[in-house]
Write the structure tokens for this entry.
Amino acid sequence: MPEEKIGTYITYHKIRLYTTEYLEYFNLTSIEFNKLVLIYYNIILKYPEVLENTSYIARTIIDKKTMINIKTGKKPDDYFETNAPSRIRRTACTQAIAQAKSYTTKVRNANKNKSIPPNPAKKFNLPIQLTKELYKIDNKKIKIKLYNGKEWKWYESSISKWNIPEDANLLSPKIEIKKKVVMLVIPEKCIVKNLTTIKERMEKNKDIRICGVAFSGRNNIATCVIIDKSGRFIKAKFINEGNKYKNIITKYLRQIQRSEYKSNRKKKTFETNKQYWKKISRNSNYYCNLVSRRIVDFCKENKAEIIALSNVQCDTEIVIYGTRYNSSNLRNRITKYTKIKSFMENILMTFIDMKGKINKCYKCNELIERNIEKKTKKVIKEDKAICESGHMIDYFFNFAMNIALNCLKKYS
Ligand SMILES: [Zn+2]
């Protein structure tokens, strides 16, 4: 993985719009926007070769296929009537291209694996994407172009707060509507400067500290251990959120099981279960954010500038609950979130090759034996290991220490 000297990351500002009067218009706009996306989507699927171009070129081709030729006044075959402003048409088309691309990829993969290809979408429910021309912000008020059922007009609503710095590099925002709450989500592109590479940091800073992190599928989701440049142990932290997380997820999985058992009507079950899957996904996200936040905060408090992770996992029991579509490894998501958060704090993350080093005692390098009695759940808490020289250590503490020490070795 190349190490960047200057990096960018995206952060999101969420601002609530108070829109009781126009709430309906937001909903109408959302429906209209998604209708447009669907029209474009179906046209694109008629000409899938369009997708081989960049998004910008693809859009130009689609425009030609759908808009009246200004010079000749001719209506193309795929012409359709709409009074949406050109900016809305454009963002809808961009969204449609992305959706069509993802669909054709899924079909291609299904054909490759000889499984049944998915059906094209019949409906979209995407957030409304805005461009600079479609909204204006001015002193706690926001003006947005909305569809009122007949035409597109400017509407004004008050906003909850506006504490975004003036020089912020804001990207195109989107509008999210959840029941009666309308939120404006504005991405900001931030730049982190003066980032040095890990190697440079290790050479220049004699007081540098490294935090080794070991993940597990137990209550102790992550074990963090900080060492200094001489390899001396400074501080450890055990992030014990695993059981809480597991209990919540198990609860929803049981409910899903129960509703599948009760009902024979598959469609109905699917709808009911959708909310449970959403809750599972939301909880996974919450815990990944929580754990990654604790890791980065711990590094900040103890002045560790490098986070070291293993490229192999030490615990087979890693939690694997994700979403309905993707039961991905929780470890991967925590890693991703930790990377983003640490980047914002100018902490660098690196992966250390730990193949063949998992079961070594960090004190004497002898083999360790993991002492887990699987008979009762209580014993799992005490995940002790013992090495051939008799060092009694916590298994995950030992692994985190090993990662940190190997990181030190790699860069010195
Ligand atoms: Zn030992």
